[in-house]
Amino acid sequence: MTPHISNPSALAGIRVLDISRILGGPFCGQVLGDHGADVLKIEPPQGDDTRTWGPPFRDGVASYYYGLNRNKRVQQLDFSTEAGRQRLLELMADADVLVENFKSGTMEKWGIGYAQLAERFPRLIWCRVSGFGSDGPLGGLPGYDAAVQAMSGLMSINGEAEGGPLRVGLPVVDMVTGLNAVIGVLLALQARQASGKGQLVEAALYDSGLSLLHPHAANWFMSGRTPQRTGNGHPNIYPYDTVDTATGPIFLAVGNDRQFAIFCRTIGMPELAEQDDYRSNEQRSVHRAALKVLLQERLAGADAQLLAEQLMASGVPAAAVLDVPQALTHPHTQHREMVVQMGDYQGLGAPVKLSRTPASYRHAPLTPGAGFLPQGEPGV
């Protein structure tokens, strides 16, 4: 996909100062940039830590960094120096949004914290990404994705029933925190339209991790029973699980009784939907172990991809389990413009599609920048 030449995107004209590192903050900045904001990323002299998080590397910079820093222009400043702090203040004067994730107290030590500068920059929206927030029993402590997965209960409900707690295989807490930061920034921009005033937006990994506990939290609030690991199975719905076939696993996402009846007809077992043990979702969930054995036996000779296509065409969600290369090269991935290419850079596309103000791709990672672009500059 070629980059967009103009920038009619939703956040065109919004200037973002991204002084964050690692994942949550930079991901927030990239999303804002994809939707048109002029994002200037400020890194310390040694660069963002994720430049070293590899392999793989290109020209000494890790792929991890490339995946989070598109649509930004980059410069380096040392905030521990007077010159670095003075330049930051100059940039703040022109910014609409600042995104940071410094350890609590660090910016205050340098005299450039939110409370110290809020009156000086009353329209500035200050977005703070942190591990646990700035106060409370854990306030100000550092937090990383996996540790918060452990603390928030996510690991306790992830993994096979007979296995131990398992980290989700991607930094889900960091990424959701980044998305929550985006939501907070957009809410604050909307509020500024009416009041003319900026505010502090706080997105904490801990809060975001807890927010992901549906339906396990809802189940515990109502029943008092500690949620358990169910492997690929859903705790409230069945069959919502993987089943092995001759060509690999298929995921069945049968969400209601009507879909189950269609599913049973499609696999040549219409009578299954009429049995008392499987007639309703409640009964299927109770008798899931026996039902899974029946489905394993029936589908042992099936082709996962063909069966998934048949079920989807009949209105039953299902999918063969793909690996990452298969997913990224799928024809529908290309159709949805979910892979972006600019020169030798490739990255994931913006998942939110706007009909009138679409996302735009203007700057590959590592594009240099000394300051914000002039207003109206398309950024090509």
Automatic annotation (TrEMBL):
GO function terms (MF aspect): CoA-transferase activity
SUPFAM superfamilies: CoA-transferase family III (CaiB/BaiF)
A Pfam family of this chain: CoA_transf_3
Gene3D superfamilies: Crotonobetainyl-coa:carnitine coa-transferase, domain 1 (3.40.50.10540), formyl-coa transferase, domain 3 (3.30.1540.10)
Residues in coiled coil: none
Keywords carried by this UniProt record: Transferase
Protein name: CoA transferase
